[in-house]
Amino acid sequence: MCGIIGIVGTENVNQNLYDGLTVLQHRGQDAAGMVTCDKRRLYLRKDNGLVRDVFRTRHMLGLQGSMGIGHVRYPTAGCFTSAEAQPFYVNSPFGISLAHNGNLTNAAELKRDLFRADRRHINTDSDSEVLLNVFAHELQQAGNKLTLDADDIFDAVAAVHRRCKGAYAVVAMITGYGIVGFRDPHGIRPVVFGKRETPKGDEYVIASESVAVDSLGFELVRDIAPGEAVFIDVNGNLSTRQCAEDPRPSPCIFEHVYFARPDSIIDGISVYKSRLRMGEALAKKILRVFPDHDIDVVIPIPDTSRTSALQLSYELGAVYREGFIKNRYIGRTFIMPGQKQRKKSVRQKLNAIDLEFKGKNVLLVDDSIVRGTTSKQIIQMAREAGANKVYFASAAPPVRYPNVYGIDMPSVNELVGHNRNDKQIAEVIGADWLVYQDLDDLIATARQGNPAITHFDTSVFDGNYVTGDVTQDYLDFIEGKRKDGARPGAAEGDNTVIDLHNTA
Questions:
Q1: Helix, strand or coil, per DSSP, at residue 382
Q2: pLDDT digits 0-9 by tens, 134-160
Q3: Active site residue 37
Q4: What is the 3-state secondary structure (H, E, C) of 465-495?
Q5: How far is it, in rounded angstroms, from Cα 428 to Cα 330?
Q6: Which helix (H) or strand (E) holds 285?
Q7: Catalytic residue from among 2, 164, 243, 252
Q8: Can you tell me whether residue 71 is helix, strand or coil?
Q9: How far apart are CA 93 and CA 329, in angstroms?
């Protein structure tokens, strides 16, 4: 999972890119990068770390130009070294920089084709570099001339759609020409664009979530449609085209469950409102399954579940309380590598307020349960704080299958929901009883915000992969890469910085 942003402005865009990446930090905490363009000269800075750590004053002073793109990263493929931080760059044709959110399911096949047929070298294990080179090759074929126009770029995107499988939301900067944003034909990963009028002319932003558009003072125009491409040239002129032959909108519903900020609007759906509806639907299920429940207090596991838990408590007529205080300087635990690190992080991340637990029957509400490691630790903390009984409710159904579209979920054998029923999962995490959201109800909570969307990617819950190309061999390949200890990390002292000009 990653966050992307691109801006075509009338003045230096480095500060706006920085601010936008900070707003998108929740989408990636391992690495950050930015490349700007000033009179056909590129300035690039990227490294491992949070946005605030990667970009110091000396870097910002060197990142000159009125257009640029940025990226924050969770690695879902490849490794954790800074060499795979984005944006990526290739000099031919024209000089293209690219930032990508998602995962290509046919990356290995594309990599072979790029070497054998397209004569292009791939230097990392990142599927984003593969995607960049596919786009670059197709742009060379589509243009095949000294200058480019919007139709050449859209033809190249159409060719990308024909070759690439999986999920991809992309911003790419073509040196001296402008920025293009595009989305895979299923629209699995989100991307929007906005506009800002200034005395010097119109400015545009493309970003993963609408919250980045709002925070920078742009007016949200709309989502980029599945299969669509949006091109903004260096003079602020906007062009759009549907580039997919058969777009089939299937946005990822897990964005609403967990990843997106609640103040974002994705595909016309308010994330906040969808989470309120999740809480309402979950409360109705609890009343069906446990009509004589003895819940004294509803306590959310911060932060993502707060919205659902508040509405759930209202529907149940139960008291809502904040029982855990969160240390905001600890990352998201289900994505942390290594079981020991995750267990240690839970205790560092949360601290219980004993008075809210002592002698009470407590319903803990979380957005989802992935490995179950965090849930087990939190339930134990509730008991240590004096809870009489500890119940658990998940705003999402059981996560039983791996994600292949850009969310760094663990190996399938590390998913607590895999090959277990609800009672068995409750025993594993130590809950007195456990209630999951029904999948149909989850879909309904999102669809209510935009009935025009008739289908979502729900593959982590039901194993139905919307791109239709995910085989057992591919799942086995993913399994080998994702299990704890499988992926290499950055070597001690690794602080690789890739600079095109004067940003170190």
A1: helix
A2: 999 999 987 556 789 999 999 999 999
A3: no
A4: CCCCCCCHHHHHHHHHHHCCCCCCCCCCCCC
A5: 25
A6: helix 271-289
A7: 2
A8: strand
A9: 42
